[in-house]
Amino acid sequence: MTGSSPNLQTSFADRHIGTTPADQRTMLDAVGHESLDALVRAAIPESIQAAPATHSSIPAAVGETEALAELRAKAGRNTVRRAMIGLGYHGTHTPAVIQRNVLENPSWYTAYTPYQPEISQGRLEALINFQTMVADLTGMATAGASMLDEGTAVVEGMLLARRASKVKGDAFLVDADLLPQTRALLDHRARAVGIALREFDAVSGPSDDQLDGAFGVILQYPGGSGRIVDPSSTIERVHAGGGIAVVAADLLAMTLLAAPGDLGADVAVGTSQRFGVPLGFGGPHAGYLAVRAGLERQLPGRLVGVSFDADGQMAYRLSLQTREQHIRREKATSNICTAQVLLAVMASMYAVYHGPEGLRFIAERVARTASALAAVAQEAGLGLVHDAFFDTVTLRARDRAGALVDAAREAGYLLHLVDADTFQVSVDETTTPDDVTVLAAVFGAVDVTTPATEAAVRDATTRLPSALLRESEYLTHPVFSAHRSETRMMRYLKHLADKDYALDRGMIPLGSCTMKLNAATEMAAVTWPEFANVHPFAPRADVEGYLDMIDDLETWLAEVTGYDTVSLQPNAGSQGELAGLLAIRGYHLSNGDEGRTVCLIPSSAHGTNAASAVLAGMRVVVVACDENGNVDLDDLRARVAEHGDTLAALMVTYPSTHGVYEHDIREICDAVHDAGGQVYVDGANLNALLGHARFGDFGGDVSHLNLHKTFCIPHGGGGPGVGPVAAKSHLAPFLPGHPFAQDADRRTGSVTAVGARREAHGGGPVSAAPYGSPSILPITWTYVRMMGLEGLTRATEAAVLGANYIAARLREAFPVLYTGADGLVAHECILDLRPMRDATGITVDDVAKRLVDYGFHAPTMSFPVAGTLMVEPTESEDLAELDRFVDAMLAIRAEASAVERGEWPADDNPLVHAPHTASSVISGEWAHAYTREQAVYPLPGISTRKYWPPVRRIDQAYGDRNLVCACPPVEAFA
Q: Per the UniProt record, which residue ranges are transmembrane (predicted)?
């Protein structure tokens, strides 16, 4: 037999793109275009279409085996030493049952943010475990569902303190022993919003002058140097003046030390990284933020709470969703609209697996090991700087500190050099007596053997202050004692995963969110030791492979966006937005334009745009949109003329938030530039442009990208994300730098170009680690390497075709709200359900919940227009899955019509009662106007792949009125 099937997949791009050439021919016929190229050229304005590339920095695509071999070579250029640098990053053992069943499990990493709680009960339960763990260990009333990292959590704590404080001043007190990377981040963020930082020594406390006009304080506990100081007296003095006390606390240390809440703190912040989450060169890790009673409604980010479903069964949901930044817009108090869900799940399961006794055992062993290490160092003649510490020992070695740190590195250990006389050694759960023995020899101790070290660790007395030893209980809920064996843990994780709908079950057609394939080959390198076990402050010589991969990505992303330089530091899209706006602000200040503070934002924009502008110190002015969803060019020109010399920037999403390619985009950019402003193009929808147009070519000065959308990093149930910022060269000096960046041109304060391709990034940091969340960058590197520029271009074409196919097939049943030229959309379409609602009473909520019965995650609800569904099929879905979704939507429209005709009562039909659980259709008498089969098997074929939601429709309002955000007692499930 000769020849081959026309549907044979021969490259990675063929496997990534779900539709075959034959499928695409069928779809093009439905849309009414001859070819993919003709479709895309008709949709994208001719004025911005890029000429075919004659040369690309992106190499030709290779297969999966070849890509992994190249990545292995890069990983081999990283040297994995035992990291004892500390500073908020610690070695940890990820329990294999958690690595295999969470981190490496698509049921967890391909899930979306739990906005649809009925199909998210598993990850919501895992997050409420996280909240309970954090609240218990910190002694606080309520904890959020995770923050981006410790540094940004401290910033959010500062902003919360300013909101909640009775003090009207703009001063914030800062512990001199704050982690240095946190201090750098705090400096940068405080400056943008007019907050003055006042540093003090935690031993003596702030002076009366420093307290005057201070709305709050941040204390590190234990300190960055390892020192433990009782913060209660400082907290009392801050409270006496009406201020708010924030404590950055080590969760493992809190198993032994008095909790911040017990000492009077109002807010606790920090990281959960050492609870089983690999170092990963700095991330992603789940930060945390918790508050005392009375501050719950001031929390930024996400909060999981408890409510009840239609049958009175207890259920979880996201609480206080009105705090979401896309709702509050310029009134937002934070731009954080995401979390680090996957990492929070890992940390929570680490606590579930070990329980309170296990965590305390680990902490005591760490503390004893640190004490034994201090003893051998003193025997070697080194001075002990602090007598009270948990895991970090600061040592004095006059004029020899550098030599000792170098010797330790030669022996395979990374220590932290403070100055010529001082260095730090941080112990963690991975530190063994053998490690202490090796370091003892490095320090100059004689006759120290491993058996002696083992005995010393076993018999050591911890150096914790007796007055600060913990007395309160923690992790008393049964969930933290019920899963000790691996069998029980494996089954618990499977039980939770089975409750949820993730990409491994079917299409998640979320507009604006791009839930595409996260290929197994792309994910493979995340857990390689050469990427997972590297400290973010390791010396450059140890991370050449990482830096090489980062350089590749910066170069490739700059090319496809038309910019000159890229920073990968922002660890979420919101942080990429903020970084770009801070760069614009820095640029204007450098030119003496202090008055340029107005940021123009279209009314259709995602709410984080406005929130980010406020946090960058800008004033938001809204620009109107026309009836087609485009920026109103006349209104834009009027706003530009009105604000003149105060105009700083325009933020515009392209394609628009309405899913349309705006034809006036060049004129829009020109109008802003002519007035001296900068253009920020929100890159959330870059997947509709790749290979066909570039932001930097049609007028963009800076953009953020979403690697968790366009470039295949999984959403992980609501995080991790990576939001790189790309810019023209004139903004490069103001992009995020970092004091610990291994590359000299990526350090805060660097302002000169290095080499022909790289521009220096000298601005302040926006994330705690120099390169944000680098351990997941191999995902994007592998995706681009296997796709090549041609594959990326094909992906764009397939995505645009998929959206237009769905729009064409559903247009008669559900009007498509916005379209561009020839009635075409970009990569997503907005279906208008309001006419159906007006005719039948069936709402967008009813349709979203009914889709669950049909085996689908709902599209994006009521954004950017209330009463609509925004659908994005992505390029990864095949035609059969697209048709299955179309059939479901058409069937739902027919059901609504049956209600309209009176065949089903308005209050008793399968739409208003959706979703239906298994128990709801088998328990008791069936008294509904529709049949059981119509409830749960509305279309042929569903029975063979039926997804059963664990709960029925959840009462959202009850959960907000009765805020419960920790693990409920077992009786609640009865």
A: none
